[in-house]
Specification:
368 residues, Methylamine Dehydrogenase, Chain H, 5-stranded mixed sheet, 4-stranded antiparallel sheet, 0% helix
Length: 368
Amino acid sequence: MKAGAFFPFCIAAVTALAAPGGPSSWPQFRGGPHLVGVATGTGLPERLRPLWTFDAGEAVESSAAIADGAVFVGTRAGLVALDLATGKPRWTYKAGSLGIGESSPAVSEGTVYVGDLDGSVHAVAAADGRRRWAFKTGSEVKASPVVAGKRVLVGSYDGNLYALDSATGAVAWKVATEGPVHGTAAVREGIAYVAGCDQRFRGVRISDGKVMTDVASGAYTGASPAIAGGRAFYGTFDNEVLAVDLRAARVAWRYRPADRQFPFYSSAAVADGKVVLGGRDKRVHAIDAASGTAAWTFATQARIESSPAIAAGRVYIGSNDGRLYVLDLASGRKVTEWQAGAALSASPAIAGGRLVIGAHDGRIYCLG
């Protein structure tokens, strides 16, 4: 999920959780509200090739959402809707003077929700790009919205996690933290879980904003938690990946590579008992979800801020070396790679037998 540097001020085997909407949909960041980054369906061809390219003009940091035959991506020009089959633009929505940075769209019941660098959260009609409402926070919004029932959950750099009415944008509640809320909230059983720049991991009841879980991470966090098997998995800027037991409200394990000391900014994907994420140490890490021990690592040629997507036993992840890597989930063996020619810090979205990802050269690519 990210381009450039982020400056903070901040069991039993785990089973894969399917993104809602089925194999033709990837409606939000990480595919669904549990943020596990797993696509359903038959997967992608072994050899990826570009099916279409759209030039957005400036570096694309936002990760795509795919729903109802359309691709929605945030750009510095605003929110764009593209036809999934052809890449032809359907509409563009202007979102603030600074445009959209890392916030990724969420699509629900015909509305697209996204945050911008001016600090507003927007609700836009998916069919034609017309504004339904906009809500102004106190600072930039880089987190991605998540829709839970009739509420839109999104963090802001003003230090608050907001719950907004999905129809009107009115504030249902907000929870103040002690630093920017950069990561996206994961939703499970009526609780929104978010890791923050104030070194805390919180579970907030969606109905009323009451904090139900508060665990010390020990370091600030820019990543979003993936929820699977009763645990939350996320990396920190202190070179660690944590598993938090949600029922016990405690850290179950910490994974820390001994040979390199670099932050984890990529958000994890979870499938087949493995937690997979990229590191700024230029490697993809796969960790046993039950024990926290290393399963495998794979080296790229630059730091990794893209968050992986998993489909049909393969890991798809971008690197700032300009390549999209396809790895075997079980072994970490490289299946293939595709060269974009520019850094890939956005995360891949997979649906309908296609993969969509934006690059630092301003291009949005659809591969299949």
